[in-house]
Each structure stands twice: as structure tokens, then as C-alpha cells.
Amino acid sequence: MDEQLTIGQVAARTGVATSALRFYEDRRLIRSVRTEGNQRRYSREVIRVVSVIRAAQELGISLGDIGEALETLPGGRTPTASDWERLAEGWRSRLDQRVKALIALRDDLSECIGCGCLSLESCSLLNPGDRASTSGTGARFLAGDAEAANGSP
User: Fold this and answer.
1) pLDDT > 90? residue 41
2) Domain coordinates of the chain in residue numbers?
3) Between these two residues, 122 and 79, which has the higher pLDDT value?
4) 7-102 architecture in CATH?
């Protein structure tokens, strides 16, 4: 049987707080077994899984999506490089879309800051096609105008 790690050992190896590890376990992203004294013990593979969870979170991938991807990994053996590559490939298009959106935000940010009201026709980020103009004058988005956000009069 492989050496089992305590929650403190996993936390130390991954840099993730023990409370986060318990949260990941509650969300069924990682698994542990319990000792006779009801202490958690983790297999060594959990270090890789936690590292993938943290990396994915840093990329903005939700825990729900991370969990779905982790469910595709094989049970009963340590995931291979091929398994991890397949998992990452599933996120590639979503990440490409985020990169595109961030580039657009970066390129248009000075216009939005200069405009201030976020309801000008030129605001391609929050008001494409000037849809907020039907909701009235002024800073419709900043005023919390739900109709402006939906484009409804």
C-alpha cells in the first residue's frame, strides 16, 4: 500500500491551506480515507490533483468545471501525462476565449475610462450598439439600471 499523507503534509507540499483541502474534499475534487482515529489520509497522487486544481483556478476555471474535468480521469491509478493533456485540452477553447476577451478589454479600457458613463455608442465592452440609450441618459450601468444591462427600454 502506498504511503498515506496527512492533511498537514499535503498542505505543506502544495501550499494550500488545510481548510481549502477540506473544502476540495467536500466538493469531491479530492478524496481521503479515514484512520481509526477519524483522521484524513491522502494518497500521494492528491498532490498532483491539488496542483491542477490551483492552476486551473488561477486561470479562472470554476470549481464546478474543474470537478467535471477531474471526473474524466481514471480511477485506481496515477493519471499519466496523456491523461493530464486530455484534461487541459478540454479547457483550451475556453481559455482562448478568455484571452481574446482580455485583449479586447485591454485595448478598449482607455476608452471606457475616458467615457465614464459606459453608455456611449463606442463602448464595445458593456454597451455594444448603444443598447443602453433606450433606458435614459447618464450612467445607466453605474446607476444599477437592470433594463440598460438587458437592452430593454
Assistant:
1) yes
2) 7-102, 116-153
3) 79
4) Orthogonal Bundle (1.10)
